[in-house]
Specification:
This protein is an alpha/beta fold and about 240 residues long. It is built from ten helices and seven strands.
């Protein structure tokens, strides 16, 4: 069972220099520059994967100082994460953090995500908004997320409180084992599958998610959640 971490430790500079923050981005030109700039104040290695955006996401991310990669077509968030994680591992990352590009994650939470891995206490940390705080989270979205937790427990028997949070951290060895085949949003459940299958030591960490009208508009509806479940089950059956 995962044990929540409740502290927010400071990471030494030499550790922060080994952290690669991977951001999938699709049509995030209006906000990705500010998100990148905020992370770069604390962590020098930011990787943005522009997943076939129709706007200026790639140019904005690059101008802000990120290592910008680009898919020629929109493949899905899972594919963008796989591209970014593989790139970070090849570049010599010791820690890989996945971080949303829409501004809802907090840079201050990254240290708490990385610290238990750095201390050798686990190999993966999973952010939990339900152990921490979810600001402006609508009741309907909360219900969908709670159902996702129940679904994950049934499928993998992992005692999680938040199964679909995009804020995660991996050791280099754990990141190298991430091999996502589900290109879309079902990747979140696939990552839990990998943790279970590979017997990776994991912990949940309280994090703070700030929802805005912008981030909520890009989130999943109940109908979208059903499509994700179907996609995940089909993908799992084919493996």
């Amino acid at each position: 069972m995962s044990q929540p971490i409740e502290t927010s430790p400071e990471l030494p500079r030499d550790v922060r220099e080994k952290v690669y923050v991977v951001m999938p981005a699709y049509n995030e030109g209006t906000c990705v520059g500010g998100v990148v700039a905020g992370v770069l104040q604390e962590y020098p290695n930011v990787v943005v994967v522009d997943d076939g955006s129709a706007d200026d996401t790639f140019a904005v991310a690059k101008r802000a100082g990120a290592m910008a990669l680009r898919h020629s077509i929109n493949r899905g968030q899972g594919a963008a994460l796989q591209t970014g994680i593989e790139f970070a591992v090849r570049r010599g990352a010791k820690f890989v953090v996945t971080f949303d590009s829409d501004g809802q994650h907090q840079v201050s939470d990254i240290a708490a995500m990385v610290a238990p891995i750095w201390r050798g206490e686990c190999e993966v940390t999973l952010g939990s908004r339900f152990l921490g705080k979810a600001v402006n989270l609508p009741a309907s979205r909360r219900l969908i997320l709670r159902m996702g937790v129940l679904f994950t427990r049934l499928m993998n028997n992992l005692e999680l409180t938040d199964a679909h949070n995009g804020l995660r951290a991996f050791s280099a060895a754990a990141a190298a084992k991430v091999d996502l085949h589900l290109d879309g949003m079902a990747h979140a459940s696939e990552i839990i599958d990998i943790i279970s299958r590979e017997n990776l030591r994991y912990r949940e960490v309280p994090v703070h998610i700030h929802y805005t009208d912008y981030s909520l508009a890009k989130g999943q509806s109940s109908r979208g959640a059903i499509r994700i479940v179907v996609h995940y089950l089909l993908g799992r059956a084919m493996r």
